[in-house]
Description:
Blueprint: H1 11-17, H2 19-25, E1 27-28, E2 33-34, H3 76-86, H4 93-108, E3 115-118, E4 121-124, H5 139-144, E5 147-149, H6 178-189, H7 193-205, E6 207-211, H8 214-236, H9 242-255, E7 256-258, H10 269-280, E8 294-297, E9 302-305, H11 306-310
Parallel strand pairs: 5-6, 6-7
Antiparallel strand pairs: 1-2, 3-4, 8-9
Helix pairs in contact: 1-2, 2-9, 6-7, 7-9, 8-9
Amino acid sequence: MLANVVVDIIEDDIMDYGKELLDILLKDRTTQKNIIWATSDYNDLGTFYRDNQEINSKWITGSYKKVIQPRVSKTKSDQSSRTKEKAEVFTPSWLCNQQNNSIDEEWFGRRDIFNIETHRSWLSIQKKIEYAEEEGKDWKCYVDARRIEISCGEAPYLVSRYDTISGDTINLENRIGLLDRKIRVVNENVSTEENWLKWIERAFESVYGYEYQGDNLLLARENLLYTFIENIDYKFNRKPTLRELKRIATIISWNIWQMDGITCAVPLCDRRKLMEQLSLFDSNEILGEKTFCKIKNWRSKVILEYRSLLKGEK
């Protein structure tokens, strides 16, 4: 039976699987270091919480386990401050659903595939999804179709474990995220664990998202990881192994990355490089050089700069 959905994921619970799992979720694949805070909200906690500092598991677990919280758990003043300073605005699930339905309408060529929209809500369709196989579209094509959520925050368009505005949890069978839908399709079409794990990995490999602030990014990554945990419980009534979790976490750490959406670079990279160079008295490198973010194409196994996609490069 599926365990109760928790909104605020405690990093200590992730550490219970193994410290290396949380370390993967904190990894920045571009810099090969950890993601950074990229927000001044935690400055009062000390030097290790400044905006240009890496997020270390030591400072978000144990006696610091409540440092990182989802937006809905923050005070109204903190929410307002983040909206004013970082233009942080989260979208209610019913609106995410409408927009995701529009994406699916384009792909399927018809409406009401996964649910029927009602006033600020929806009714999930229980029957198995049908595909236009005569047009070369089957469930595997749907799982592999790439999707991205820009400025993803806690990733409500990808996974809808809870409504980011109200904090209400959403049962697995009623979820509306782009990845949630892909996982539903896998659950409907695959029975063996080996094949299920294969196609679940492909589903995770097909969804992307980027976020500026490090705390939001970690929350997004955690939501994707727990979506996997909840679905393996739902499908096979068991907990995932550490090996399975590390595999999914690795995909997540590549596909949900930290980036300044305007520059396509790692946040604050200019300032960090300048500080590092001054501290080493190195005058041979160009001061203020940007570190452009890298992502992975899992089908071709190619690692490329995200900005190259905006230029139309392959």
